[in-house]
Specification:
339 residues; alpha/beta; TIM Barrel; 3 domains; eight-stranded parallel barrel; 16 helices; 50% helix
Amino acid sequence: MFLDKIKNLFKKQDKAAAKEAQETDLSAEFGFDEDAPTAEEPAAECAESATAVPIEIAEENAVAVIDEVIGDKEEKSRRGKRGGKTPAVNDFSRLAEILNKDEQTVLEECKLFQIKKVMSKLSKAVVRRGLSDGKIKALIQNVGVSGLNEIAVAPAYLNAFAAKIKSEDVKVCAVVDFPFGEASFKVKLSEIKNCVKSGVDGVLTVVNSAALSKDNQGELKKQLKKVGRVKGVERGVAVNAEDVSAEDIKRLFHTLEKTGMDYAAFLFGNVSKKELLSKMKEINRNKGKTKIKVMANVENVNGVKALIALGADGIITPYADAVAKELFKDFGIKSVRLI
């Protein structure tokens, strides 16, 4: 029945062509005859193939028959005027139709998915004292709904987080010896072991910039190898970026080789733009395959954007939830609320 309708439409357009078409194979009508002239043959020979229906007309007729058989009135209304072809339909509209949802919901879900990809590069820093139980509870909830990578906490907060962490799908990284890294390695290692026993997902150990000197490089490597042997957690080492020279940065990455450490973090305070660019240039020049995180007071989306552009694989900031709120507001996300 479908083919009969195609033939009837051909008859209406050109009775002579339709009559000749009935004596040939249908495939020849669409230009697939093996004996038909190819594109490489002379134009005169191609012109003599009067039985071949132009592909544009064939497409137009095929669409017309589909509309008539299926009765797809919506498809007819969307069809453009050029050659009877259908223009691209809004992708979100198509997805909404497939999912049986309204287009705005699908659009918001897609934007939220991408926003969470941005937020997955961020960690919420909780390293200062004075957080109430209520603030801790709100903090954990915000991390879960915003897509933040993890909470980076001082060991003093681990007991307060312990019960709540187990009931939430939230990663926790213990920041050991923050902010100066002046404790002895024996104290640091004991702290790391206690943090691992409490069930953290990662440990970030701060080392003093003096440990990066040429004279101390060998000892630092031995210490990092011991930390690198700690199993079941992500292991990072952090240094104060303001206190290290270009040579210190170079020695740090050389020292990190074959230690088992997963990443290096650089702590930035209130540095100038010029100093930040200079330090990040040295870091990128020497990092090799080592992942880089930046710990700084990044308060807004523009700051996150700048650090990602400068090569940061992760950003640890006490204002991570504020960044999430800004993104949700800017992109009109109403399905998620942050406390």
